[in-house]
TrEMBL record:
Signal peptide range in chain numbering: none
Record-annotated PAS domain positions: 6-54
Residue span(s) of domain GGDEF: 181-314
High-level lineage: Bacteria, Pseudomonadati, Pseudomonadota, Betaproteobacteria, Burkholderiales
Enzyme class, first EC level, given as a word: transferase
GO biological process: regulation of DNA-templated transcription
E.C. no: 2.7.7.65
PROSITE patterns per UniProt: GGDEF, PAS
Gene3D superfamilies: 3.30.70.270, PAS domain (3.30.450.20)
GO MF term list: diguanylate cyclase activity
Reaction equation(s) it catalyzes: 2 GTP = 3',3'-c-di-GMP + 2 diphosphate
Name this polypeptide is given: diguanylate cyclase
Amino acid sequence: MDIPGTARLSELALERVGLGIFAVDRDYRIVLWNRFMDEHSGLAAAQAIGRSFFDCFPDAPRAWLKRKFDTVFLLHSGSFSSWQHRPWLLPFEHDCPITGSLDLMQQDCAFMPLIENGEVVAVCVTIADVTELAVAWKEREVALDALRDSSERDALTGLYNRRHIDGRLESEYNSWTRHHETFAVLLFDIDHFKRVNDTYGHPTGDAVLRNIAAIVSPQLRSSDILARYGGEEFIVVLPHCDEAGAAVVAEKIRAAIENDALEASTGALKVTVSVGGCVSTDGLTSVAALVAQADQALYDAKHGGRNRVCLFHPHPA
């Protein structure tokens, strides 16, 4: 049995390897083109070799690729491009038996100098199909995002929970200390909620809490954060909001809940809420102090007759 020579073995490997391999000279003319490139680009080696790469692929990222090629020629060293930074170099269809949002092959690309007599005569580019890896990575990220989200969501209402809102409060507070952009906090809870549970049962009480979440959310801006703070108490963080704006939002929340009714087994069930609020002001020392001010305002609303809004005002010295 005759064993093919080294050159023939190299040629066979180049043609059979599961990578796209091509090379360009200093004028960006294609000087090497393997079967993978032929099959996925639709351009045969006889059509590609000797032509400018950019004439063959006018939609390729010309400026970026030229920088890559020129750097390899200049520095005599290779470079790499991950699919995470540039999903693909050339828009090849993938043939992975998967479903998902990736219509094109995701590609890792390596750029290597081909050196002869100490001179870089060409840049060789390898294209690795990493579509399956990319899909798995994206699915993992989606799963992790869902896990993170579920850990910061209230199971009953679907709103953010206290763990999440504490972090957002800290973030808004830190931003305020740096940039002095006023933000507001509202606390509200359901008036006589124990009476609702005692009269109608806890399943109805749960339905009331879910209904509150559904009523309040449309009253807020997309930048506002609504959360269940505990029990029948809710909290709203209002970025870039002054006292006048906080009063308007608080009243919208109060009125929307008062004017709505939940269909219970015994008929329409209406509830009201008391709302306390405060805004970030000079002299504020912590998030805890801010929440305490909102809580004090809520206390004042409760003891002022309920179903009302109160905003915190520091007592003059």
